[in-house]
């Protein structure tokens, strides 16, 4: 599953807050283990993320407990079947894709200009209707 631009922004902001010791990520065991955000994340956190606390919890859960863990689960099953020999190839492909994405983001895309109808085309359109 690919991360959206909102996911990437969320992760960057979360990293800053963790580096500033305002938030930390812990594992919780309620019969099944999962990751949670810890520390007081009230109004200040809402302002930093630009979403409600529930929105922060939802995005964190989705990214860390669904997407991230699921990715490792997939790796586990592939490597259980084929060994770790493919890991180097997969990492080479990932590095290449990341570089291509960075280059694409730096490029400026100009939209294709819309074709302007001249008067003769407008008149012929009216005659066909």
Tag the structure with descriptive keywords:
129 residues; mainly alpha; two-stranded antiparallel ribbon; 5 helices; 2 strands
Write up this protein.
- With 129 residues, the chain is mainly alpha-helical.
- It has a domain at 5-82.
- It is built from five helices and two strands.
- The protein has helices at residues 5-19, 43-49, 53-82, 87-106, 119-128, and strands spanning 24-29, 33-38.
- Strands 1-2 form a two-stranded antiparallel ribbon.
- Strand 1 and strand 2 form a beta hairpin.
- The radius of gyration is 24 Å and the shape is flat.
- The two termini are 47 Å apart.
Tally of alpha and pi helices: 5
Give start-end ranges of low-pLDDT stretches: none
Strand arrangement, major sheet:
1-2
How large a portion of the residues is in β-strands, by DSSP E?
5-15%
**Helical residues, percent:** 55-70%
Main pleated sheet: 2 strands, antiparallel
Number of E-type strands: 2
- In terms of structural class, how would the helical and strand content be classed? mainly alpha
Oligomer: single chain
Shape assignment: flat
């Amino acid at each position: 599953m690919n991360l959206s631009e909102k996911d990437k922004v969320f992760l960057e902001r979360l990293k800053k807050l963790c580096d500033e010791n305002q938030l930390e990520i812990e594992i919780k065991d309620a019969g099944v283990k999962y990751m949670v955000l810890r520390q007081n994340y009230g109004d200040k956190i809402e302002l930093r993320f630009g979403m409600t606390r529930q929105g922060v919890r939802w995005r964190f859960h989705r990214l860390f407990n669904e997407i991230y863990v699921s990715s490792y689960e997939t790796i586990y099953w592939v490597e259980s079947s084929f060994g770790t020999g493919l890991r180097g190839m997969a990492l080479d492909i990932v590095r290449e894709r990341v570089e291509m994405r960075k280059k694409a983001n730096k490029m400026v895309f100009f939209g294709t200009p819309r074709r302007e109808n001249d008067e003769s085309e407008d008149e012929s359109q009216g005659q066909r209707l």
